[in-house]
Design goal:
Blueprint (H helix, E strand, L loop, with lengths): L1 H27 L5 H5 L13 E9 L3 H9 L12 H6 L22 E5 L2 E9 L3 E5 L13 E11 L5 E11 L4 H37 L2
Antiparallel strand pairs: 1-6, 2-3, 3-4, 4-5, 5-6
Length: about 220
């Protein structure tokens, strides 16, 4: 009986491990094809030796030129992040996602700051108008004077899809600079998965609506 119990516990541990590994990969590569997950994207070289990479994607029934304005105006105090504003605002982010294209926020420049929170921002590291916006930085831990235990890049990339559509890819790259960084980043990656899903869908909803409205107006 004892040996049977040991075997059962071992089998259970193996199954939990397999499930965790599969679930982790699914959330890190949500919506991405094998080619997309393994491809090189703009900004990858900013964090070349990443310890954790997440690539999440979906298709948008609009051209890259129609999707880009929603990417260009990302940020707190700008267009928002099109995700769960109420949850973000519980921690003081003061996010209000726009439902329209805001002309004054359409020209991000390298070196600009894109705020996540009134007191926290990432730097615009790369801009390829109509194609890619890459942010870089890290959120301080335990106060603004504490150096983050990781380096981070956040890329928003638009690729041509089928029949005039767009593949919208969002990639996060984390490089650990402290041994304990995984204990912080792994839970963050799960939260990011939830928020990123909503953000991607929020961008899609807005871009497709704008595309449909434009098509209707041209008739």
């Amino acid at each position: 009986m004892k040996s049977q119990a040991i075997r059962a516990c071992a089998l259970g541990a193996i199954m939990v491990g397999i499930y965790a590994a599969v679930a982790r990969r699914r959330q890190l590569e949500w919506g991405a094809t094998t080619e997309e997950a393994g491809s090189t994207l703009p900004g990858d070289d900013l964090v070349p030796n990443a310890d954790l990479v997440a690539t999440r994607c979906l298709s948008v029934r609009a051209t890259p030129e129609q999707v880009w304005p929603w990417i260009a105006q990302l940020g707190q105090g700008r267009g928002g992040f099109y995700s769960y504003d109420a949850l973000e605002n519980l921690v003081g982010c003061d996010i209000h996602s726009a439902d329209r294209i805001v002309p004054e926020f359409q020209h991000p420049q390298e070196g600009d700051g894109v705020k996540l929170h009134p007191e926290i921002s990432l730097a615009v590291a790369l801009v390829q108008p109509g194609r890619a916006l890459v942010l870089r930085g890290a959120v301080p831990v335990g106060g603004t004077q504490v150096e983050p235990p990781y380096d981070f890049s956040w890329a928003f990339v638009l690729r041509d899809g089928a029949n005039g559509s767009t593949r919208l890819l969002v990639r996060e790259r984390y490089q650990y600079t402290r041994w304990w960084a995984p204990a912080l980043i792994e839970p963050v990656a799960v939260v990011s998965f939830v928020m990123s899903q909503r953000m991607l869908r929020g961008i899609r909803e807005r871009a497709e609506r704008e595309s449909l409205d434009g098509a209707s107006g041209s008739k």
